[in-house]
Amino acid sequence: MKDRQLLEFRDAMHDAAHMAQQLHGIGVRGFGVAHLMDGDGQTVLLLPFANLVTTAGDQYYAQKAVVGIAPQAPTAPTAANGMKLGTTATAAAKSSTGASLVAYLTASNIAFDATYPQTSSAGGDTGWNATYKTTWAAGVATSATINEVAIVNDQATNATSTAPNTYSRAVLSTVNKGASDTLAITWNHKFLGA
Predict the structure, then answer these.
(1) Is the predicted pLDDT of residue 29 greater than 90, yes or no?
(2) Please, which of 33, 62, 114, 141 could form a disulfide with 12 given CB 3.0 to 4.6 Å?
(3) Please, which residues have CB within 8 angstroms of residue 27's CB and are 6 or more apart in sequence?
(4) Predicted TM-score (pTM) of this structure
(5) How far is CA 130 from the centre of its chain?
C-alpha cells in the first residue's frame, strides 16, 4: 500500500476497533476493514466492520487453547483456512440463521493470504489479536452486492458453509466489486482477558 492508503487503512482499522469496543463483556471481539481497490491499485472504499464470533468460533478457540495439554490431550479442531463472501445483509448471529453465509457468492471461497494468519500484542495489557487476511483479485467474486463475509474451515468447498464450519461472520455495507477491482479483507479477533 502507498503511504496515504496506509494511513487511511489504519484510520479505518481504528474505527473498526472502536466499533468492537461498543460490544460489552470480555472474550473475543471481531473487527476489520474491507479494502476495495480499482485496477490501478487506488482505494475505492475502506469499510470498517465489527462482528461477534459465532458459537462454532467460540468452540474453535476454546479447543485450540487446550490442544495436546495432558492428561486428556485433546485433538485440534478443524483449522480456519479462508474466507467466503455473500450477498445478503441478514444480521450476524451467534448460532442459527445469521451464523453462516445466507447467500453465498459463487467462487468467492479464497484461502488466507500467504503470510496470514498472524498474532500480535494489542499493547498495554489490552489483549492479543489474531489477524486474518484474504484478497479477492480482479475477476474473482465480481458482484455489485457483497454484503457478508465469513471466516470458515471449508474454504476449498465452492458452496455455502454451514454454521459448524463458520467461525465468524460479518455484515458489510454494500461493496460493489467490479471486474477489475481487488478486495482485501483484514480481520482481527481480539482476545481480552478479565
Answers:
(1) no
(2) 33
(3) 53, 58, 191, 192
(4) 0.87
(5) 10
